[in-house]
Each structure stands twice: as C-alpha cells, then as structure tokens.
C-alpha cells in the first residue's frame, strides 16, 4: 500500500475508532458527571453533561447515609481474603502437580479438568446448604468461603505449567544448601512465579469484586455484610428518587476495579489470551 | 570380581533406598500441598454436583430433612410449565443474538487493531475492553437509568438528533426490552472477544505472511486465503466461550429488567433463582434443581456440539497443513 493512501486510511480509522470509543465509554462518563449534579439538575439535564457546580456532597451522602462505607469495606475484606486464599491454594497445588510425579497426580489433573465439562445442575443450592450447616450463613467468612470455592482450573494449570518448566537444578541446588521441600518452594520457586501470581491476583480480584449472585444470596437477611454490588442494588430499591446519590454509589463501586484494571491490565490480558490458546 | 559386584550392588541399593526415601518425602509433601485444594474440590465442587441431581428428586423447601422423595414429579411439572419454556426460549434468543452480533464485529475490530502500522493499539484495547471489567450488576442499574424513563439519556439523545419523533419506553415493551438486554450484553462482552481474536491473530506464523508479500498478494487476498482459514480453529474456541458466557446472564437481567415486562426477558437462571431463593413464599429447592439439571444438560449438549466443531476444524487444518507440506516438497 502506498504510504500516502495508508496515512489517509489510518486517519479515517482513528477518527472512526475514537468516535466509537467515546460512545462506548459514555455510560461511565455520564455516570460520573451525574454523580456531581443535584437531583433536580439530573432530572432536567437532557443530555447536558456538565453540572453547574460539582456537588461532591453526593458522595458524602452515598458514603454515610447510603451505607457505602460499610459496603466498601465489606467488598475490600471479601475480595482481598478470597484473592489470598485462591493464590495460596493454586500455587501449592500447581507446585505439587508441576514438580512431583506422585501417585494419583494424573488422576487429580483429569478430575479437576473434567468438572469443567460434565453437565451439572444448580450447584449453588448444595453450596448454600453446606455454608448453612457450617453456621456461616449471613457472615463474611461464609461469603468468602463461597467466593473461593471454585475448582480454579485455569490458575492451577497456569501454575503447574510454570513450575514444570523451571530447571531441575534450581531445586537441587537449594536442597544442597540444606533447604527442605517447603523452604525451597517458599524461598526459591514461588518468588520466580511472580507473573503467574500477578495474573491470578488480578483476575480473581476483578471476578470477586464484581460478583453479585453469591453475595446476594448469602447476605439476604443481613444488610451489614452486603458488598458494593449488592448494596447498590439495595440502594436503588430503597432510595428510589436519589439519582445523583445512586450515581455516586455506582462510581464508588466501579472506580476501584477500573483503576486496578488499567494499572495491571497486562497481566489480565495475558491470562485471558492464555485461555484461548491453551 | 564377585566381591566388587556385590559391593556395587550394595552401593546401588543404598542409593536406591536413599532416593526412594527422598521420593517418599516428596510424595508426602506433594499430598500436603494439594490437600487444601482437594478438600475444597470435594466439598465445594464434587459434592454440589452430585447433590444438584439428588435434590431434583425430592419435594424440599431447603429446611428440615430431605425425606419427601417424589421421583420424576418435579421434572414432569417443569416440562408442562409454559413459563419455564418461555424462559428457555428467552435464554436461547439472547445467546443466539449476542453470538451473531459479536462474532463478526469483534473479529473486524481485532483485524483493525492488529495492523502493524496502526498506532495507539493499547489505548483502544483498554477503552473497548473497559466494560468487561466493570461490575455487571452495577452496569445493569446504570443502563436502566439510561434506557428506563421517557426523558432518560437514550430517548433524549435520539429525540434531539431527530431519529425519534416521540420517546420509546425501551424497557416497557417486550421486544425492545429484549433488544436492550442483548445490546447491553453484547457491549459488555465485546472487549473480551476482541482480546480472544487478537490472541489468535498474534499466534499465527509470521513467515507465511512474508511469503505472501513476496508472492505479491494484496491485503484482501491475504486475509481471505491465509488469515481467515488459519483463524478457524481459534474462531470455534471463541464461539464456544461466547456461548458458554451468554448462558449466565443473571446479574444483568436481575438488575436491568428483572425479567420484565411480564416475563418477556426472564431467562432460565432468573427463573431458577426465583424458585430457589424467592423472597415471597417457600423456596422450592427440588423443583429449582430439576430446572437446573434441564438447563445444565442443554448447556452440556450445546457445548459438546461446539466442542465437536472445534475438533473438526482442528483436524481439518492439520489435514490441510499435511497436504500443503506434501505439495510443497
């Protein structure tokens, strides 16, 4: 293609893609500006985007009156604990599977992979019953347990492949230095697996933060343990006319996950790309 | 001589038992390492899968003992429930429309962004991917405000652009509510599929393209006879992932339309939820489980069919590759 034509084509493409991108993320832009308007302004805004004066007090109202401070800390506690639990379990499992050919190893890998494909019913009901019989219904640990309960096949396989490909000499050298199996894992091998830890952390963070169904059914009778996703849903039902408060609440809920994604997107995109190629 | 071999054998034996001891210790550690995941797996994956079938044969509200065995009664009742089939049809319409909209458009976007000379790839990828990482239930609420009222953003915009003469109650009529649900669902998942396609495009071998350029093939020719055929296996995997993703639409439906108006957008997962966790009346766990099994088996059959397609396209490609390799030599 001649350079001149290519430049023209590139320019046209950019104009098109930028225009489309503005429409694409407009709902979020609109949400942020709506959160800075008064309710009357919101009602009469039409598609006027900017508020006359930014009303930051909407955020204060959502945070205090709307209980978003409680929801926010619940979301943080649930998400961070779940991420730590999932990383610990998957790294340990992946290490054992990748480095040791113990009897039953292949059977284990086959079993966790098979659960992805066999037909299952509505499995949340038995999980609900288990959490109930443990006495953890309507508690934060109950939600955390349910959130970290998946088989984590993708993460385990990522860790397994990564540990499998590390050279044998590393382990041997560390053993000669007097490290046992566990210390070799913690001090030598796990630090090398940082990219996989990062991918697991980011993906699990975003999944748990965005989770709605599990925290919804596990906090039905207990507003104090609602997460942001559930709290927002409840807020809409309870404060039907406080639109700018709702927009502020939505912004409080979405901004953390958007920031985390933009900062760490490399690991997230890699994790997703891995699931297609694999 | 004999003494030497015996000594050597003894030495080997010692080494063997040493390495046997080392192995035993390693095995013990390995079992300890997989134990937490194995426990979680048995309790939260295997047991629930088994029980999701067992519950379906009982009339049970979730409280008290599991004693009222009713056999296939739940299933029979389900098969006769028009509302279930309505939800079933809605789910299929949603899955089908979303897939048909997304497959070509996301591929097109990936092809554009994958151009070597095209700058700003990461910025565009980030922007178009953004809806994927946002909380679906909150997006549902935002969209309800954008499409919901007569003087909401979407109506106002279309009115002032002169596209509409009067406001449309988008979420108040069956057809348009489903349309909004499909469009929002597609918008939310677009970035994910775009990244799938980009990953597929980047895994294509570069030397074929050099050869094509040397042979004087233009862009469209290269696209038609090299890129698209090579993308076929990845494409079928993407199709599979999209269909599977579209089956779970609870968060969006619950917050955007809650199945309304008059069940016009009620999907199977919302239908099951309403029986299992309904706030009014007793939950019908057995009945909900039966519905879960029917839906689970449908998903299984669909994915098995698509999985077969994946395998076929893989086999087809390796056959083609083998043929072209033979032809080349």
Automatic annotation (TrEMBL), chain A:
It holds the Pfam family BPD_transp_1. Residues 72-264 form the ABC transmembrane type-1 domain. The keyword Transport applies. It is found in: Cell membrane. Keywords: Cell membrane, Membrane, Transmembrane, Transmembrane helix, Transport. GO terms for cellular component: plasma membrane. The keyword Transmembrane helix applies. The chain crosses the membrane at residues 12-33, 71-95, 107-131, 143-164, 185-207, 243-264. It is a multi-pass membrane protein. GO terms for biological process: transmembrane transport. Its main location: membrane. Belongs to the binding-protein-dependent transport system permease family. PANTHER family: ABC TRANSPORTER PERMEASE PROTEIN MG189-RELATED-RELATED (PTHR43744), SN-GLYCEROL-3-PHOSPHATE TRANSPORT SYSTEM PERMEASE PROTEIN UGPE (PTHR43744:SF8). This is Carbohydrate ABC transporter permease.
From TrEMBL, chain B:
It is a multi-pass membrane protein. Belongs to the binding-protein-dependent transport system permease family. Coiled coil: none annotated. Pfam families: BPD_transp_1. GO terms for biological process: transmembrane transport. Keywords: Cell membrane, Membrane, Transmembrane, Transmembrane helix, Transport. This is Sugar ABC transporter permease. SUPFAM superfamilies: MalF N-terminal region-like, MetI-like. It comes from the Bacteria. It is found in: Cell membrane. One of its GO terms (cellular component) is plasma membrane. Residues 88-306 form the ABC transmembrane type-1 domain. The chain crosses the membrane at residues 28-58, 92-114, 126-147, 167-187, 230-250, 285-310. It comes from Paenibacillus sabuli.
